[in-house]
Amino acid sequence: MVKNRNGLSLLFDYANVLVMALLTCAMLFPFLHMAAVSISDPGPVVAGRVALWPKGLNFDAYAAVFQDKRILIGYKNTLIYVVLGTTLSLFFSILGAYPLSRRNLVFGRTFMMLIVFTMLFSGGLIPTYLVIRSYGLLDTIWAMVLPGLVSPYYLIVMRTFFQGIPRELEESGKIDGLSDWMIMLRIVLPLSMPVLLTIGLFYAVGIWSNFFSALIFLRNEDLHPLQVMIRNIVMVGQVGDMTVSESVGGRPVVLESLKYAVILVGTLPILCVYPFIQKHFVQGVMIGSVKG
């Protein structure tokens, strides 16, 4: 029986490794292909002979991208939206999740039902647009930040995490004379860094990838985020049969290389954040905090 169990366990481990390897290859292939095409010579790209390895080296596409003012403006706007939006989203999510995690909150169940209701039903695009316009938020940075400021799902996740923190820690803080605000700032939030960083990353990725709100609420091109700039550049190749474009940087570049270079420039920065936060996903936050 022990040998059979060990054999099945070993087979299960091999199957897991195989599945994860296949998933990793499937996820890496598009990035490797785009990177290879973006730095390859024009001839092999036009002929469609570039797969996972570049044919020659040509960085004209990246030079054209970084010389285009729209990309720089898009980067600046996106960084402003991400920093401002993520900070405010985390702030208000904490202010909402911490009181809801307290069992003695008056009308706590009612507030939770109202929050869950927003996950099932929404006003729709036209009412949302009318609300944004009535508050004078059109063509402002707040149109990219305020409409999706707090996610009900992330709020509930954060509330559940706060509920898992032992009450003994908060009671010890009250014995030391701390108020509810100081308990949250000095005890709860330091122990909640994994969930704060994880949800903050999700907020940041959502804002970084958001272009639909900009298309609806922003008419001033100087306020457009990077994703809208990328969309406008990529859409050039979907009109007609062009193989060479001068729409970026004013220099002729193979359209396929240009599109992939723009996509990588807009995607890689937010991907580089993951390695610095990954350790907090698996860190045991409560280890050693309560003894006995």
UniProtKB/TrEMBL annotation:
Domain of life: Bacteria
Primary location class: membrane
GO biological process: transmembrane transport
Name under which the protein is recorded: Putative aldouronate transport system permease protein
Gene3D superfamilies for the chain: MetI-like (1.10.3720.10)
KW Transport (keyword) present: yes
SUPFAM superfamilies membership: MetI-like
Keyword match Transmembrane helix: yes
GO cellular component, one term: plasma membrane
Subcellular location as annotated: Cell membrane
InterPro entries membership: MetI-like (IPR000515), MetI-like_sf (IPR035906)
Membrane topology: Multi-pass membrane protein
Entry's family note: Belongs to the binding-protein-dependent transport system permease family.
Coiled-coil spans in chain: none
Organism, as annotated: Paenibacillus methanolicus
Chain segments annotated as transmembrane: 12-32, 79-98, 110-129, 141-162, 183-208, 258-277
Listed CDD domains: TM_PBP2 (cd06261)
